[in-house]
Design a protein that fits this description.
Structural class: mainly alpha
Number of strands: 12
Distance between the termini: 60 Å
Radius of gyration: 23 Å
Strand content: 5-15%
Shape: globular
Number of helices: 14
Length: 448
């Protein structure tokens, strides 16, 4: 295994593991705050129990996310010194702000966890709000740094050296808003659907459990609106990619030839030898509409990109199709659930919806992993788009394959531990009889 491949694989493994905890760390605090807010207004003990259990989950995921995030920071310096030398003065500000948000989250999470019955209820709720706010800000600042790698600004390049550095311009790079919006919505959608899906599965076994019914409702209220908004943020992101990273867009859609009125491709597999796509379904003018909001607009194909600057087209195209397909399914299920709730129907009474939600439980995280594959692999061969190649930023390290194996085993072990802790502390419902309310069957299902 080459040094470049080993370094990229280890970074992909670390990032793929860390991102799961990062996105749940964004969504879970909002769930615990929503549950506590309902408890303060209704004094229903189920809401209090949910808030306490979700706060434990937030703490578990925060701790593991901190460990995996620290590993990533070390890997940036050890594996990619060329990148850090060039990018450090420019992305140092968002990373510093992320550190400030991280420590703020840690402080108020401690207050929240140990402040039950020790500080006034409103102050305790505000501590939870600050945990949720600092969590999302932490994610935003990290994504801004990645957005800069896709649309580098805030400097002039003279003889391969960045000069006239402006960290504010780098912070406000052209992809910052689009990527942070898309990622934040993805975090809320994935977390909300995961919670709703888990409790939907448990309700299929125990339909009268009030604990699971309440958790299902809150999960839908967090995840469904984000899932419905996600296609809109995807449209904004697609136009940005078309403008600043035409090679990535061409790889996403396996568009080998530049053309006006370019079709949108559904499915298919790129044949790199013949430069065609097999088994795909084309929607006429769809890509031109998506990228430029003009059905006759010209979309740049891979034929306009030097061959040595092509991303891995099959991987990028497949990951993009997975992300879009899952996003469409989740948006449809979200619309179904919200439509029932607007009509004052309890989603817990609709078995087909429960089955759909249970099936969607892991899909948000799969879509996030696919989306980051599109973002990172689609930028190759550049680590800083158009400025620094990935091969020029890596450092040779002996025995990197062994560290890759070690980290893989470590992440698998941590994953098993976290899964058990989440099950024992959060998912498993209270066994006290009073948690099961009495329901009267009516037309359409049981209601409280």
């Amino acid at each position: 295994m080459s040094d470049l491949l080993a370094a990229r694989t280890q970074m992909a493994l670390s990032l793929g593991f860390h991102i799961l905890f990062a996105v749940v760390g964004i969504g879970m605090p909002l769930l615990m705050v929503a549950a506590e807010r309902r408890w303060l207004s209704r004094k229903d003990p189920i809401d209090l129990e949910l808030a306490k259990r979700w706060s434990k989950g937030t703490a578990i995921l925060f701790a593991v996310g901190a460990v995996s995030g620290t590993v990533l920071s070390f890997e940036l310096g050890l594996l990619w010194p060329g990148f850090m030398e060039m990018a450090g003065p420019l992305i140092g500000m968002p990373f510093s702000l992320e550190g400030f948000a991280f420590f703020t989250e840690a402080i108020f999470l401690g207050i929240y966890l140990y402040g039950w019955d020790r500080i006034p209820p409103r102050a305790h709720l505000m501590a939870g709000v600050l945990v949720a706010l600092s969590g999302v800000l932490s994610g935003i600042f990290v994504v801004i740094a990645n957005a800069w790698m896709n649309t580098p600004t805030g400097f002039d390049l003279v003889d391969g050296v960045p000069v006239n550095i402006d960290p504010i311009r780098a912070l406000l790079n052209p992809a910052a808003f689009q990527q942070t919006l898309h990622m934040t919505l993805a975090a809320y959608a994935a977390t909300g659907f995961a919670v709703a899906g888990i409790h939907a599965l448990l309700l299929l076994r125990d339909p009268l459990n009030a604990f699971h019914r309440r958790a299902l409702t809150l999960g839908i209220l967090i995840g469904a609106p984000a899932a419905l908004l996600q296609p809109l943020s995807g449209d904004i992101s697609a136009r940005n990619v078309a403008q600043y990273q035409p090679a990535k867009l061409a790889a996403m859609e396996a568009l080998f030839e530049t053309q006006a009125g370019a079709p949108l491709l559904l499915g298919g597999w790129p044949d790199m030898e013949t430069r065609t796509v097999r088994w795909g379904i084309e929607i006429p003018y769809g890509l031109s509409l998506l990228a430029h909001h003009d059905p006759k607009a010209v979309v740049t194909g891979l034929d306009q990109i030097p061959r040595d600057e092509w991303p891995n087209v099959p991987i990028v195209h497949l990951a993009f199709q997975v992300m879009v397909g899952i996003g469409t399914v989740m948006a449809a299920v979200a619309a179904w659930a919200l439509w029932l709730m607007v009509r004052r129907r309890d989603p817990a009474d609709r078995r087909p919806l429960l089955i759909a939600l249970a099936a969607c439980a892991p899909l948000g995280f799969v879509a996030i992993e696919a989306g980051w594959t599109v973002t990172e692999v689609g930028r190759q061969p550049w680590i800083i788009h158009g400025v620094l190649r990935t091969s020029e930023a890596v450092t040779p390290m002996p025995g990197l394959a062994y560290t890759l194996l070690g980290f893989t085993l470590l992440y698998l072990f941590l994953g098993v531990v976290v899964a058990w802790l989440l099950y024992s502390q959060i998912i498993r419902s209270p066994r006290h009889q009073e948690w099961n309310r009495v329901y009267t069957p009516t037309v359409g299902g049981p209601h409280a």
